[in-house]
């Protein structure tokens, strides 16, 4: 009799080893309980609560051979790994494991044992370690880690956790039981399909569908088909097929084969004839508006009971594309008044005289998606059709087609469509932004397209983890971006090299007394906590630059810390009539204690001779619209963010010259950036949100000015520098409450506090 492993889906770190070995041995089912305070196993009348003991108990119950003396050492390693924070220690442990696995499949012996599960679980539970493994510096360890993760049982445990997280509102009794699986799925036989229409670029909503299809195909060691649904010559073009395949490549998604609905036009036409001959379809020339009204009211078409001969005759006219034929369409004879309006005699074939991008002028009639999809799914061997739940009303229609044509059945698996606040997914509305020049193209980092979000620095791993965390949730909600960007930060932070950049605006030259007479170059790690990221060269001199914002914050005779150098004492400041600091003198004070200074600042040596600085542009972006969710009758033009691109001209250290387009870095004290390439000699970097409120909040409330168009393909935009009035940051709300004066009046309320923090300007 199988035991029960109870664990909380929100546990941190999550007990991966216990969950994975439970599904591998089949000796315990997973019971996800948000109220659980730890992990516990009930098996054969006894209860075990320590994860290492649970792993050993399940290994023994599952017959996993594990009699090596080395096993205890691996259990000890698994216990210490989560507590290690220093990168050199983590790296040393990974190096040791990598060396050990160079000529071994498993840690102990020739089969998987408890040692493999306990160590894998410890690695899986550490975001830092998973990030380091992605560096490919430990190929043998990564091969072993990936193998264990790819096992069907492990995938079921991962999927079960994803479902449990997305099912917080459900009863714990019904949660998960490691079953984010597909109904009636058999290993090696599952076939999924991703069917985009070749009429535009993929966006983040499509990404979820594509990733889930690939995920299930891999989980069950099956296949995934990429099928272009090319049934509408009006909207489709060959170049969109190429861009969609490129978008999928950006998501690391590759199908086992690529097909087209147009490959089956002959078969689909024959099925349409069959439906007419069996009395399950009829031709109709009812005008579109009248047809819509009749369907809504449950009124039968005047042609619903026409003879088979008449229907065949009209369908023949449609096929020829004659003047008479283009008036007609073909409808499935399902129902007149079914409560589900999708079942009320839907159109399954219509005439279109435009040439098709693959079949040319061969056809004048084309099937609708709802007719073609179930037929082609069945023909191509698809076992599970994944559809967003906006199609749920049409699922009975899908099954009706299968039954009416006596086709092999296909299982339907629903999932919720992905929506984000302040985000448009409508192709029509996105086209408007491109056509008006408000954005620079379909890969604009403000766009929710796959190209846009990847260009803004979102990693595939973060996207994949986020999509799977949504699991089979059916809730249709507008998600915040913060959790996705926070996940992304956890992945990039351990491996992003650190550099410095200073805004050119009123940059301040500083003379450092006691600094080197001639510039000196020292080699420093690009990432202090992760030496494997590499080294950079830092120039030290007596003439440096600092930012105006830092200079203004200095008090006279204050001791500050120059990062990666040491302490210095501010001796004098030169200020012009506008209050702008134009020069500073400091005394180097290397014996000072950096722990006692309030301000640690970045700086750059002034360029001289061979030691140059690099001209860079730091780009930041806002949401394109000012309303969290546009309603159906909202005009997008009324909700365009006035300025949604901000450009800051800056200097960066010369190390950035070694970057390749797409490299992700951190400019210390500024944030994470992705290198976007060189434009007119300037290195352009796009800011990557990190999930914190300030980085993802709409900036629209603090702006003035109008949207800037990118004329002639050049990137232009205004930097919003005008400080808004207090009223500018009021959040307008619709309310029936009458207006009350503020208790403290309209003046700013000073709250005196004793603090060692230096004063910062209000972010608004």
From TrEMBL:
Catalytic activity, reaction form: tRNA(Glu) + L-glutamate + ATP = L-glutamyl-tRNA(Glu) + AMP + diphosphate
Homology family: Belongs to the class-I aminoacyl-tRNA synthetase family. Glutamate--tRNA ligase type 2 subfamily.
PROSITE patterns cross-referenced by the UniProt entry: AA_TRNA_LIGASE_I, GST_CTER
Stretches the record annotates as Disordered: 707-726
Pfam families noted in UniProt: Arc1p_N_like, tRNA-synt_1c, tRNA-synt_1c_C, tRNA-synt_1c_C2
EC numbers: 6.1.1.17
UniProt GO BP: glutamyl-tRNA aminoacylation
Lineage: Eukaryota, Fungi, Dikarya, Basidiomycota, Agaricomycotina
InterPro entries: aa-tRNA-synth_I_CS, Arc1-like_N, Gln/Glu-tRNA_Ligase, Glu-tRNA-synth_arc/euk, Glu/Gln-tRNA-synth, Glu/Gln-tRNA-synth_Ib_cat-dom, Glu/Gln-tRNA-synth_Ib_codon-bd, Glutathione-S-Trfase_C-like
Keywords associated with the record: Aminoacyl-tRNA synthetase, ATP-binding, Cytoplasm, Ligase, Nucleotide-binding, Protein biosynthesis
Superkingdom of origin organism: Eukaryota
Gene3D superfamilies: 1.20.1050.10, HUPs (3.40.50.620), Ribosomal Protein L25, Chain P (2.40.240.10)
Entry's localization field: Cytoplasm
GO molecular function, one term: ATP binding
First-tier enzyme category under EC: ligase
HAMAP family per record: Glu_tRNA_synth_type2
Residue ranges constituting the GST C-terminal domain according to the UniProt record: 47-176
Annotated Gene Ontology cellular component terms: cytosol; methionyl glutamyl tRNA synthetase complex
Principal place of residence: cytoplasm
CDD domains the UniProt entry points to: GlnRS_core, GST_C_GluRS_N
Name of the protein: glutamate--tRNA ligase
């Amino acid at each position: 009799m199988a035991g029960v492993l109870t664990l909380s889906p929100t546990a941190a770190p999550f007990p991966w080893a216990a969950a994975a070995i439970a599904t591998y041995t089949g000796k315990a089912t997973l019971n996800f309980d948000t109220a659980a305070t730890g992990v516990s196993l009930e098996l054969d009348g006894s209860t075990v609560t320590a994860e290492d003991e649970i792993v050993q108990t399940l290994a023994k119950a599952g017959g996993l051979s594990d009699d090596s003396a080395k096993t205890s050492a691996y259990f000890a390693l698994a216990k210490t790994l989560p507590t290690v924070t220093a990168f050199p220690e983590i790296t040393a442990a990974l190096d040791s494991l990598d060396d050990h696995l160079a000529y071994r499949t498993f840690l102990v012996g020739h089969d998987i044992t408890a040692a493999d599960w306990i160590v894998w679980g410890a690695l899986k539970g550490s975001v830092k370690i998973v990030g380091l493994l992605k560096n490919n510096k430990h190929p043998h360890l990564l091969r072993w880690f990936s193998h264990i993760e790819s096992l069907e049982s492990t995938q079921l445990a991962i999927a079960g956790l994803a479902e449990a997280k997305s099912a917080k509102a459900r009863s714990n009794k019904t949660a998960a039981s490691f079953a984010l699986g597909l109904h009636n799925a058999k290993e090696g036989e599952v076939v999924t399909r991703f069917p985009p229409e070749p009429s535009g670029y993929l966006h983040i909503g499509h990404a979820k569908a594509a990733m889930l299809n690939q995920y299930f195909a891999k989980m069950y060691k099956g296949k995934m088909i990429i099928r272009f649904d090319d049934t509408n010559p009006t909207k489709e073009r060959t170049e969109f097929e190429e861009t969609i395949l490129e978008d999928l490549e950006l998501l690391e998604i590759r199908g086992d084969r690529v097909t087209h609905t147009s490959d089956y036009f002959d078969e689909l036409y024959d099925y349409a004839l069959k439906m007419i001959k069996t009395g399950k379809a009829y031709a109709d020339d009812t005008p579109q508006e009248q047809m819509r009204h009749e369907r809504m009211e449950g009124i039968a078409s005047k042609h619903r009971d026409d003879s088979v001969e008449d229907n065949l005759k009209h369908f023949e006219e449609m096929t020829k594309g004659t003047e008479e034929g283009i008036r007609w369409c073909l409808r499935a004879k399902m129902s007149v008044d079914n409560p589900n309006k999708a079942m009320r005699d839907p159109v399954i074939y219509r005439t279109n005289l435009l040439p098709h991008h693959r079949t040319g002028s061969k056809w004048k009639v084309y099937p609708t998606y709802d007719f073609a999809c179930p037929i082609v799914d069945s023909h191509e061997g698809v076992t599970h059709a994944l559809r967003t739940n906006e199609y749920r009303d049409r699922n009975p229609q899908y099954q009706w087609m299968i039954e009416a044509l006596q086709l092999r059945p296909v299982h339907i698996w629903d999932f919720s469509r992905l929506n984000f606040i302040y985000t448009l997914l409508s192709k029509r509305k996105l086209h408007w932004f491109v056509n008006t020049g408000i954005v620079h193209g379909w890969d604009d980092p403000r766009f929710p397209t796959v190209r846009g979000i990847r260009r803004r620095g979102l990693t595939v791993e973060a996207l994949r983890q986020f999509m799977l965390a949504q699991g089979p949730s059916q809730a249709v909600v507008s998600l915040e971006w913060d959790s996705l960007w926070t996940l992304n930060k956890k992945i990039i932070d351990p491996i992003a090299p650190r550099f410095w950049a200073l805004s050119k605006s009123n940059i301040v030259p500083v003379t450092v007394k006691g600094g080197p007479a001639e510039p000196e170059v020292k080699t420093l790690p690009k990432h202090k906590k992760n030496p494997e990221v590499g080294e950079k060269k830092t120039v030290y001199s007596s003439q440096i630059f600092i930012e105006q914002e830092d200079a203004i914050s200095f008090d006279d005779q204050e001791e500050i810390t120059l990062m990666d150098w040491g302490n210095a004492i501010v001796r004098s400041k030169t200020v012009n009539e506008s209050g702008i600091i134009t020069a500073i003198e400091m005394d180097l004070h290397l014996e000072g204690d950096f722990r006692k200074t309030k301000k640690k600042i970045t700086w750059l040596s002034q360029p001289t001779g061979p030691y140059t600085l690099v001209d860079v542009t730091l780009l930041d972006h806002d949401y394109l619209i000012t309303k969290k969710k546009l309603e159906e009758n909202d005009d997008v033009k009324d909700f365009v963010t006035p300025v949604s691109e901000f450009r800051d001209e800056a200097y960066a250290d010369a190390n950035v010259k070694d970057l390749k387009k797409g490299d992700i870095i951190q400019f210390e004290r500024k944030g994470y950036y992705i290198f976007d390439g060189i434009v007119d000699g300037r290195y352009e970097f796009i800011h990557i949100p990190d999930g914190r409120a300030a980085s993802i909040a709409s900036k629209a409330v603090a702006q003035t000015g109008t949207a800037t168009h990118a004329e002639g393909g050049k990137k232009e935009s205004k930097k919003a520098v005008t400080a808004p009035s207090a009223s500018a940051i009021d959040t307008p709300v619709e309310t029936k409450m009458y207006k009350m004066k503020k208790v403290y009046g309209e003046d700013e309320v000073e709250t005196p506090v004793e603090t060692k923090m230096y004063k910062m300007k209000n972010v608004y």
